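Batch manifest, entry 17 of 40.
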Amino acid sequence: MLLLDKPSGISSNAALQRAKRALNAQKAGHTGTLDPLASGLLPLCFGEATKFAQVLLDARKRYTTTMRFGATTATGDAEGPVLATFPVAFSAAALHAAADSFVGARVQTPHAYSALKFEGRALYNYARAGVDVPRLPRPITIDAMRVLSWDPPDAVIDIECSKGTYVRVLAEELGHALGSGAHLIGLRRTGTGVFALDDAMSLAAFESMAEDAREAQLRPVDAPLAAMPRLSLDAPVAAALRRGQCPTMAVAAGLYRVYDVGDRFIGIAAVDSGIMKALRLMQEG
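Output type: structure tokens
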């Protein structure tokens, strides 16, 4: 795994492909799309690590966003044409109160200009063609929404949220709640699961390194699972799990990252009623 600080101006896939070429990797994937406008933490998985990418796709995210109030745009960010303008007449206290009111479980409709797929095509392709397609609301959770600064018409806001949260939609909703339009002019992901932006490196720095130095930047396959309970297995149980069997284990029900007697990472297993079942396993050898 590589913790990349994606620059703004390129897509997540373009950043992935450049890192993949730098490592001469055969298999690679990223763990949650950042729009070209956005920058920040983009964990990349290579080889066997791609089997465990879903853990980070499902992980909670953290962003520092800059919202500009007083205007709405077609795309919800600075790249789209302005649709309408509004006075910015609310106070700092009102902004803080409105942001606080967003904390908790809520339902959000994905933005028309998003990478979410409908019948195999990204929603933004339909939007650019002027075609309306269904966008089903879905549950999200906002863990925190903190106003860091207010310099009208711009606010810098720190957001902690569940997967699938569209920050540009939050900007539009917050603007509406305050009687003013709003859109994003900056977005930086600062956290994904157990990882923080402080531990990431820039794409340019990574590409400029010698091959052995690039390899040294890679983290172990089990790094994103640090928050998951660890379980060490004796040799017979580890062998049974690798054969596709379901050994009995006297441990609490739940998900575990499992290791063999040599402290080698095996994969992820689920235990239910004392029965262990493999979910994702490393390839042997």
